[in-house]
Each structure stands twice: as structure tokens, then as C-alpha cells.
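[retry 2/3] Cytochrome c domain-containing protein: previous attempt timed out, resubmitting with same input.
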Amino acid sequence: MLLTACGQERVRPSFHPEANPPTLSAWGALQVEKGRLILGEGVEPYTLNTPLFTDYASKLRTVWMLSGSASIGEEGSLDFPVGTVITKTFYYPEGEDGTVTAAAYQSVDLSSEVDLSTHRLIETRLLVRREDGWHPVSYVWNEEQTEATLKRTGAVVPLTLADHQQAGPFAYVVPNENQCAGCHAPDAASGRIEPLGPTAGQLSRREVVGDEEGEQLLRLAEAGFVTLGDEPAVVQTRWDDASASLDQRARSYLAANCAHCHNPQGPADTSGLDLSLGATGAAVGRCKPPIAAGSGTGGHRFGIEPGRPEASILTYRVGSTDPGAMMPELGRSLVHEEGLALLNQWIAEMDGTCSET
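[retry 2/3] Cytochrome c domain-containing protein: success.
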């Protein structure tokens, strides 16, 4: 679980405008203090309505700015100032035998401290906004859980998952610098790197921080990190919100996990599949024959065949761990069973049929 830090002396973060330091601690955004991971001075935690799945890891997300504030742009995108440092730390609950357990994919509570006596830190990824744009940086934590070191070429961390239907050994893959840049460039033509998760719609949610409940986007605005517009943000549906429609939940899940590549300008545009929130009809895959899936079709004819998730390419690929078929193709070694179940239900309840021609 995450705990609320109190009575700890915080390190002031540092911005590195050119080179990436060899250790994570040099940034000052996070620090290990008395067996706990805590945030630096002025660093704000945040979470998302529907986050990207990464092998059942928990994620501690933070943002810090040297100066200025993020403004809200088109479709809720955030324009962050130079001097912004966004971090995402991946970690697991760890047993006494060294196995890790699947963390809750969606957490209601949010605070700023991780107890390292019961958790294992794996990696921390940074997105750094410099004068020439965003730069991805990855750090891998040591066995002693005291420091993380720069890993430009990525890493493979062997883990064993316990108490789960996919229990057993698996390879947790830390992406290399080029892979990070590829996923964070939703416009393939420009190749411009940008944050994917923190949008106004993803950040607009109720939260519990310690003993206080409130609106997350408002907290970030009060901290000076976001300048709110005149209109309220269009909230992106939580994928696990039982009060929302099945279609809203499934589309939010696909947007968070797939649309960074599968959008009209994305690196997967040749597939003709658009999984962004605003897409409709065949663009989403309904009765759409594959264009460039190759062996990844699993022998199925349509991206989505209404009423038949077992015959749909989309769920076949989301449920696969074959490197030649799995989607997303980076960022996971395991299947997100709960996400797959949501997509199966969504397709199973669709009306209509696909033409044979």
C-alpha cells in the first residue's frame, strides 16, 4: 500500500537541462529515507482514471516543474513548460520468499510514500521537458533498494508472480530509450515525444490523499502545476467504473492501452485501426478485415465480430503473449485478464453481424 509521508525532510528537486545524471537520486524527485520511498519537496503525486497495464505492477506517478504551469489544450491535452519532470515508478508487493503479487490495477487512495519492507521497486521512468522537447529516461533500482541507475539500453528483470492465475516466473522488461521514444510519439510523421497519460480527462477524478478527499485536477491547479480553463474537463471514464456504460469503459481501456499507436497519425496507421476515444464504426475494428496484421490475426476475419469475442482479432491479440501477435507489442509479458474480460463482454453484447463478403 501507499502511505502518507510526514515529518520527513524532503530533498529539493534539480532540473538537468542537458545531460541525464547516472543516478535517479540526482534529480531529487524521489528519495529513499528510512526504508521508504518518498517524494522530493514540491513534487506532486497523481493517478489516472484508466492507466496503461504493465504486468500488474503498481505505479507511483509524480510531476514537478522548475517554474510555470501546464495549460489545457485541444481534447484535454496538457502543454507542460520547459523544466517539467514527470516520473513513474513501477513496483510490486513482495513476499518474504521474494515472489511478487499482482497489485490492484486501479487504486482509489493516493499518497506519496512506499514502504520498502513490503514492496520491491523495479524501475523509474522520467519524461523531462527540455528546450528542444521531451526526453525519456529510465532508471533501474538495485537489489538493496537504495538507488536506481541509468539504463539507456533497457533491462530484463526476472520476477515470479504468486497468487494469480498466471502465477510463475515471468520477464519484466524495462524498455530501452528508443522504445520509450517510439511509444511516446503518437504522431509518427513528426516523431515528437510527448506525455501520454496526464491529460485533463485522465486527471479529472475524485481522490483520497491521507485523510482528505477531493478533486485531483483541482489539487494540481492549486499547487500551481495546471492552469484550468473556463470549461470543465471532459472526464475520461474509469475502465472499472461499474456505473459507466460497457461501451464507455471498453473504449477508455482501448484508448489508454492502444491509441498511442492506433490513431490516424500513429505508427500503426497502416493497420487502418483507430482506437482513440473519438473513433467510430469500422475504424474501431467492427467488421473490419485486417490490412497489415499478418500472422497476428489468429486466423480470424475481422477486428471485431459482434457477439463473437472468440472470433475477433482484437481480443485474440490482447489475450496473446506470442511476440508476433500480442498487443500492445511492448510493455507487457503477461495478459491483463480483467481488461481482456471487459473487452470480451463488450464484444459479446454487440448487436449485428459481419458480411461474408
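[retry 2/3] Cytochrome c domain-containing protein: The chain has six helices and 18 strands.
[retry 2/3] clearing retry counter.
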